[in-house]
Amino acid sequence: MKRKNYWFLFAILLLALTSLSQGQNLNSNSGSSEERKTMSWNPKPSSPQDTDDQPIQVMTHLNESDYKELLNINDAFVNETGIQVELHNIPDVDAYRQLIALLEVGEGPDVMLVNSPWIHSLASSGYILPAESYLSSTNGSDIISPVLQMLEWNGYQWGVPLDMDPYVLAWQMQALQSLGVGNIPGTAKDWRDLLAKLEIRKGKPIALPSGDVYAFAALMGVVGGTNPADPSVEELDSVGKIRPWIQFIENDRMQVARTSLNEGGLLLMTVPFSATFREKNKLEFQVPDQLYAINPFLLRGRSFAVASQTKYPEKVAEWIAYMTSDKSQRIWYDSTGNLPVLKQMYEEDQFRMTKPPVTLGQLLNPIEGGHAESTLQSEWENFAKEAKLFLSGKSTEQQYREALDGHPKEKKPE
């Protein structure tokens, strides 16, 4: 009896072991089958995903006419290289805020074309890459030095400059010569001689856009020194003497004023270079080069920057190189009037004429060792308010200096 029970128990144990073994084999085989099925029909995407056919996303902050020209140059790039590029423009005044909002959530563009003074804050916030990381050569020696200063931070260059559109003094040379003055005034004595001759002329022949602080700075930079926020007594006195001849032009009268300038009704107008560059045969342009060499932000340039999150550094580098090439810079200037930032473009015949449209002076040949720090940018909002009051004759020299928390410097001995 015991022997039968042993055999019976042995049979049950053997059956249980056999069933367990089959169950393990079934689960293993089933798992392998599912794994093979997944590998066969649902392959994992490559990481990063194959992006050869994905377009570069570019966001710009341009006016309508400049944006259209950028689209034309971009079309030429796409046709020549086959690299696809999608451009989106934000012309709004709050473009910076909109751009930052996109970058913060990782939905920003691969490349952005923005006002050059934005580059520092974008770099310090970690939103963009240093130019050295995606360009084989940044060609810093080929670019106007003060332009590069706006793009440098923490020992690196963070953007690639496209252009600049500084305010210039646009002179009507026939009107100037009719006063017996052959050349644009360049010294304090020249200005005194010109103002003496204006006594015989009716009206106010010097025009400034009303409320335009860039125009105020340009005029004061030519007449009254390189730091309008902290001028010497002598410099501020020189500016004070031209105030009776200044008229302020509202926005809705700007075109009328430009026509008057072209026809000789005005002697001088301070405007962005791009606004009057097509009249270069009638006008001569004076750049306050010393002012701009110390205050590069006044050059009003735009620069390319590459987002830290881009997946296409090679294609981005090729696109930026094309957009900033000599050929593209000539096309951009001819169409928009925005000045190139490459030094060689200001050599003879580069503009298909006997000389470049403007003389950049110290912008091309900065003083060795650089310039001292200027307080103008830090005082910009205050300067905007006080300069208008002073130039319109509503405040005195002393009130102007006190409002800017400055003190008159000693007048230089003759």
Q: Topology of this protein?
A:
Elements (H helix, E strand, L loop, with lengths): L1 H40 L14 E5 L3 H18 L3 E5 L5 H10 L6 E5 L3 H6 L20 H5 L2 E2 L2 E2 L2 E5 L2 E6 H6 L9 H11 L7 E4 L3 H11 L9 H10 L3 E4 L4 H10 L4 E5 H4 L6 E4 L2 H6 L6 E6 L6 H11 L2 H11 L43 H12 L5 H7 L11
Parallel strand pairs: 1-2, 1-3, 8-9, 8-10
Antiparallel strand pairs: 3-12, 4-5, 6-12, 7-10, 7-11
Helix pairs in contact: 2-14, 8-15, 15-16
What can you see in these coordinates?
- With 414 residues, the chain is an alpha/beta fold.
- It is built from 16 helices and 12 strands.
- It has a 5-stranded mixed β-sheet with strand order 2-1-3-12-6, with helices on one face.
- The protein is globular and about 70 Å long.
- The termini are far apart.
What strand order characterises the main sheet?
2-1-3-12-6
**Residues in β-strands, percent:** 5-15%
Average of pLDDT: 83
Q: Shape, please?
A: globular
Helix content: 40-55%
Secondary-structure element order, as H and E? HEHEHEHHEEEEHHEHHEHEHEHEHHHH
Measured between the Cα atoms of the first and last residue, the distance is: 138 Å
Q: How would you characterize the largest beta sheet?
A: 5 strands, mixed
Give me the secondary-structure category: alpha/beta
Total helical segments: 16
Beta strand count: 12
Radius of gyration: 33 Å
Unreliable parts = 1-50, 408-414
